[in-house]
Amino acid sequence: MKIFQCPSCRHPVSFEHVACANCGTELTFDSSRIEMTKLASRQSCRNREIIGCNWCVEGADWYCGSCRLTRTTPNLGSTRNIMLWRRMEEAKRRLLYDLSRLRLPLASRSGARLAFDILSDEVSPILTGHLSGLITLNLAEADDVEREARRVAFREPYRTLLGHFRHEIGHFYWAMLVDGTTFQAPFNLIFGDQAQDYQAAINSYYSRADRSYDRSGFISEYATSHPWEDWAETFAHFLHIVSTLDSLAGLPLSLDDRARRTLTDPYLESDFEALLSLWMPLARSINELNRSLGMRDAYPFDISPAVKGKLHLVHMAISAFRGQQRLAA
Questions:
Q1: DSSP element (H, E) containing 29
Q2: Which parts pass through the membrane (predicted)?
Q3: Would you state the pLDDT for residue 323?
Q4: Do 100 and 220 share a domain, yes or no?
Q5: What is the model's pLDDT at position 254?
Q6: What is the pLDDT of residues 258-289, one digit of tens each?
């Protein structure tokens, strides 16, 4: 995520800011132009007062483009749920920023719009997942203590709210970028045959007694459960990479000419090798900084040659889709 500037005093402001810390100007994010603007000149989202949504609305709408995608909100009868919903929507806005920078549409080939159900499990258990463009998220994942308990229980090295969003959106884009396209055969070769029974594979995964797996072939343990999950995990990691490189672009670091060209817009970089050559030392550096602060590695993963090939396929599928969209226009 790049650093934005206050439109009044040019002081650096973050993606989530509702006001400039330097001059006090109230801010709103214009998602169509990807820039911070003055609230006075734009209408704010109705959820600004409730959950601090800082996106502006379009036309006569009451809600911004991000909030309109939330089909179902959680039970807001408690202050805790409102706080957790706020965190959910903040993560969703970051996801939508990623998709906008990648120039990926928010509707399927059939025209069905992407939608989100954010539900609390006070009455019955809620499973986070994706089905035909509808992403369901358990509000409890926004609770740091609950999410950490689940991370430990599932023996995961990494579990974040934004990671959930990026994983589930990977399922949505598999149908658009791979299914029935020229990437179907390469997908089956690299990720495996997606025709195998999904539910049976997931049931088998959760019933395993031996939790070891081939770390040279998969980015995570969950990626071994089914080729669709392997794709979703890999897609999420691709978003981790380009988003973090976008943040790197705004830091006061000494970089060579090729690195600076890549960081002009990592989301649209056509050279996959250029992305990876920047990402690998950056990931190691972030981990070392975290260790110096007594924290866990921020990116506790190794990108093996096989995983690199899978990431490359994600990059090629996204780039090919953008190329087709340009020709169609």
A1: strand 27-30
A2: none
A3: 93
A4: no
A5: 74
A6: 888 899 999 999 999 999 999 999 999 999 99
Please check whether residues 270 and 297 belong to one and the same domain: yes
d(CA 118, CA 66): 13
List phi, psi (to 5°) of 134.
Answer: -100, 120
Q: Are residues 147 and 190 in the same domain?
A: no
Look at residues 62, 54, 61 and name the one whose alpha carbon lies nearest to residue 97. 54
Three state DSSP letters for 151-210? HHHCCCCCCCHHHHHHHHHHHHHHHHHCCCCCCHHHHHHHCCCCCCCHHHHHHHHHCCCC
Give the contacts of 148 (CB within 8 A, at least 6 positions apart). Answer: 159
Same domain, yes or no: 44 and 129: no
Indicate whether 290 belongs to any domain. Answer: yes
Residue 11 near residue 22, CB atoms below 8 Å: yes
Give the structural domain span for 238.
178-329
Q: How far apart are CA 59 and CA 61, in angstroms?
A: 6
Is there a domain that residue 167 lies in?
no
One domain, residues 14 and 110? no
3-state SS assignment for residue 295: coil
Structure tokens at 234: 């890999």
CB burial of residue 209 (10 Å; 0-12, 13-18, 19+): exposed
Place of tokens 């709408």: 61
Structure tokens at 279: 């990402």
What phi and psi, each to the nearest 5 degrees, are found at residue 57?
Answer: -95, 165
Closest CA to 203 of 171, 170, 172, 229: 229
State both tokens at 300. 């506790």
Residue 41: the pLDDT is 66
CB atoms within 10 A of CB 150: 15
Burial class (CB in 10 A: 0-12, 13-18, 19+), 115: middle
